[in-house]
Amino acid sequence: MQTQLDNSSIDYSALIHPDRVEGSLYTSSEVFNDELEKIWYKTWVFVGHTSEIPQPGDYISRNIGLQPVIMVRDKNGDCNVFSNRCAHRGTKLCNRMSGNVRAFVCPYHGWAYDLTGNLVEAPHGGEYSAEFMASKGLAKVPRLGEYRGFVFASLAEDGPTLDEHLGRSKAFIDRFVELSPEQEVELTAGWVRHKYEANWKMLYENDTDGYHPEFTHASFLQAIDTQVSDYVGKKDIHTEPVIKDWGDGHTELEFGTGYRHSGKPFEWFGRASPSKFPNYIEAMDKEYGAELSLQKMIDGPPHAIIFPNLFIAELSVVIFEPVSAGQSIQWHCPAFFKGAPEVNRRMIRQAEGALGPGGFLVADDQIVAERNQQGLMARSPQWLDISRGMGTEQPDEENDGVAIGEMVSELTNRAFWEKYKSLMEAETTPIARGEAA
């Protein structure tokens, strides 16, 4: 029977083993509250992309865990991230997902904040001193960082730097960005949000799981001629896709192994003919040289997760957002490669088929995740098995410290839980705001 957890200290060493995890980790509200403090409010979390706020006054609103935040570009061109909460009585300032403002004005009492978060007006403000006004700005996140346009924030005052947090996973962003002849991606196509009646960890585990596609996505693979159809269930790590543990919870389902074996460019793009992209190929050759350009177009984009919430899903960017122990939101946005309009037009069409409201892939994954959550309400058996391929991992000859497993191994699941356990067993000072009810 699964363990019933209470508000006392949770023994994660008893719930997480190298080959199995306890089912209550997905259903317990006590565990969820603990995750907020030890993961979402402690580590670096992806917030947004600089391309989403190109002009002064442009903003987006997101959540870090349960805490609402605003990312805005100020008049100096700098990116700022604040709590989406008026310093007066706590009112949420922005309800819209994005927009452009001269100032953030609270709908309750009219307090106004400039783009750097300073309180610039409080109606009938003669009651307030200059010192009071200066002390009532919006709360900035303690730490903010960016890597190649991807903006991350941490609600912890100290801890690993962003560079340390990203570690080897910077290679995911590099490979993604460098498919643009201008070495920039843009997340301007718009976001689709799918609400799951399932724990956020199921989203994370599923998206670099190579064991499920031939079953969960069987109808998709039968209906559409795709390179993935050739790879599902294959086990040769030298000629077929593999899964990788990059350390610190960063994981990948790498299709590039199979693409390199074929030697053909654009296998990752629905086996498109190079003749469809003459201007893109010319621009890539000019930027990187013909040999390196061809290699990039053979290797394709990553299918990889940066812990805890950023999934670079080949041609889209995905965000995992926790809501409760039994609910989460998965955000999707097709990426545009700057300087590649031929490619971008096709990417929109592919995203519609895979990720849109009528798409195949997300619908399949959502149904299975929700059935997982429903099944876990039965408390027996106690454990979820993640032992497949255990002990067969091999070192990545090209990337020191990276472990490789067969596509159908559960290496990436084990990698996630190893990182998760290390954080959940650590001592953490609770963040006062944003706790789960």
UniProtKB/TrEMBL annotation:
<dbReference type="InterPro" id="IPR015879">
    <property type="entry name" value="Ring_hydroxy_dOase_asu_C_dom"/>
</dbReference>
<dbReference type="Pfam" id="PF00355">
    <property type="entry name" value="Rieske"/>
</dbReference>
<keyword id="KW-0223">Dioxygenase</keyword>
<dbReference type="InterPro" id="IPR015881">
    <property type="entry name" value="ARHD_Rieske_2Fe_2S"/>
</dbReference>
<keyword id="KW-0479">Metal-binding</keyword>
<keyword id="KW-0411">Iron-sulfur</keyword>
<comment type="similarity">
    <text>Belongs to the bacterial ring-hydroxylating dioxygenase alpha subunit family.</text>
</comment>
<keyword id="KW-0001">2Fe-2S</keyword>
<keyword id="KW-0520">NAD</keyword>
<dbReference type="InterPro" id="IPR001663">
    <property type="entry name" value="Rng_hydr_dOase-A"/>
</dbReference>
<keyword id="KW-0560">Oxidoreductase</keyword>
<dbReference type="GO" id="GO:0051537">
    <property type="term" value="F:2 iron, 2 sulfur cluster binding"/>
</dbReference>
<protein>
    <submittedName>
        <fullName>Rieske non-heme iron oxygenase-benzoate subfamily (Ibuprofen-related dioxygenase)</fullName>
    </submittedName>
</protein>
<dbReference type="InterPro" id="IPR017941">
    <property type="entry name" value="Rieske_2Fe-2S"/>
</dbReference>
<dbReference type="GO" id="GO:0051213">
    <property type="term" value="F:dioxygenase activity"/>
</dbReference>
<dbReference type="InterPro" id="IPR036922">
    <property type="entry name" value="Rieske_2Fe-2S_sf"/>
</dbReference>
<feature type="domain" description="Rieske">
    <location>
        <begin position="44"/>
        <end position="153"/>
    </location>
</feature>
<keyword id="KW-0408">Iron</keyword>
<dbReference type="Pfam" id="PF00848">
    <property type="entry name" value="Ring_hydroxyl_A"/>
</dbReference>
<dbReference type="GO" id="GO:0005506">
    <property type="term" value="F:iron ion binding"/>
</dbReference>
